[in-house]
């Protein structure tokens, strides 16, 4: 009985194995169909990166607010620049006002010795003291030129000569003309420029000139001499020259020639002459009166 059951079991097992072999052989189409699902499986795999790409887009949008945050920082620096501007203006303004000079104390006129030359040839010799007088509604005072702080320059030709006296506050220019027709040498042009504070902290520019003049006239080889003379330049400005000795052209041994004294310094004999004439008239009158008186007394006596 046991052997019969064993045989039956073996037969069933053999039958099952045989059926499996035939099933594997008889079903090739299903085997071909099985790869189709395998091909479909990668499609979900490809779809998975798409959400990853979408995830980065929000990250890009997040950076945009960061850029907007820097804009207020730039605006914050602008007020700092505006703050420096008032500081610069406030510092410079007082410094500009500070260098304005205060009025110099009153000083005596000092005679300076000046000259101009060209190519080693002496053109002008000038010895005088200079005062620049200003008379306006605001100022009535005189600026005194200091020879120790003044330099001279100029030149000449056959008929003209010039000299410029320069100092830190301005300058004075004289131009001479050699008039061969009249045999006279004289100044035909005077110009003065002055920048000065006659009042503390108030500096002003003063300028004036006088053209077509005939000043400081002298003969060739002579120098003009005058103790004091004033040249009016307009705009309330005038030039005061004292202890005047000026010569242009025709020098001998580079020295002054013969003086031509100005009329103001020439002796006036009119008063002595008038006094002399009056005395003579009085003497004549006295003599005539005496003779008349004597004659009358003589006529009063009769001879016996």
Summarize the entry for a quick read.
The protein is an alpha+beta fold.
Which topology of the domain at 112-256 does CATH recognise? Porin
Name the beta content range: 35-45%
Largest sheet properties = 6 strands, mixed
Q: DSSP helix count?
A: 6
Low-confidence stretches: 20-100
- Please give the radius of gyration in angstroms: 61 Å
Q: Structural class of the helices, strands and pairings?
A: alpha+beta
Mean pLDDT: 74
Give the CATH class of the domain at 112-256: Mainly Beta
From the N-terminal CA to the C-terminal CA, the straight-line distance is 254 Å
Give the key terms:
6-stranded mixed beta sheet; Porin; 304 residues; 40% helix; alpha+beta
Give a written overview of the molecule.
The chain has 304 residues and is α+β, with helices and mostly antiparallel strands. Helix content is 40%, strand content 37%. The protein has six helices and eleven strands. The strands form two sheets. Strands 1, 2, 3, 9, 10 and 11 form a six-stranded mixed sheet that branches. The chain is rod-shaped. About 27% of the residues have low confidence.
């Amino acid at each position: 009985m046991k052997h019969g059951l064993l045989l039956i079991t073996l037969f069933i097992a053999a039958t099952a194995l045989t059926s499996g072999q035939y099933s594997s052989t008889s079903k090739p189409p299903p085997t071909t169909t099985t790869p189709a699902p395998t091909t479909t499986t990668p499609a979900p795999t490809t779809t998975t990166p798409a959400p990853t790409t979408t995830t980065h887009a929000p990250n890009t949008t997040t950076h945009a607010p960061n850029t907007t945050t820097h804009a207020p920082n730039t605006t914050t620096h602008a007020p700092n620049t505006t703050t420096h501007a008032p500081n610069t203006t406030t510092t410079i303004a007082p410094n500009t006002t500070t260098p304005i000079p205060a009025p110099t104390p009153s000083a005596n006129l000092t005679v300076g010795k000046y000259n101009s030359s060209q190519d080693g040839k002496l053109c002008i010799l000038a010895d005088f003291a200079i005062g620049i007088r200003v008379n306006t509604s605001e100022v009535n005072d005189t600026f005194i030129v200091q020879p120790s702080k003044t330099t001279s320059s100029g030149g000449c030709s056959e008929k003209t000569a010039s000299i410029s006296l320069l100092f830190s506050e301005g300058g004075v220019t004289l131009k001479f003309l050699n008039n061969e027709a009249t045999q006279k040498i004289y100044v035909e042009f005077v110009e003065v420029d002055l920048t000065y504070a006659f009042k503390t902290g108030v500096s002003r520019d003063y300028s004036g000139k006088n053209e077509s003049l005939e000043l400081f006239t002298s003969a060739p080889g002579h120098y003009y001499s005058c103790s004091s003379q004033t040249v009016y330049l307009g705009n309330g400005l005038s030039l005061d020259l004292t202890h005047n000795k000026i010569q242009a052209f025709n020098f001998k041994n580079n020295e002054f020639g013969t003086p031509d004294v100005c009329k103001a310094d020439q002796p006036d004999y009119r008063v002595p002459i008038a006094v002399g004439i009056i005395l003579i008239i009085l003497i004549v009158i006295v003599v005539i009166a005496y003779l008349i008186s004597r004659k009358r007394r003589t006529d009063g006596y009769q001879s016996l």
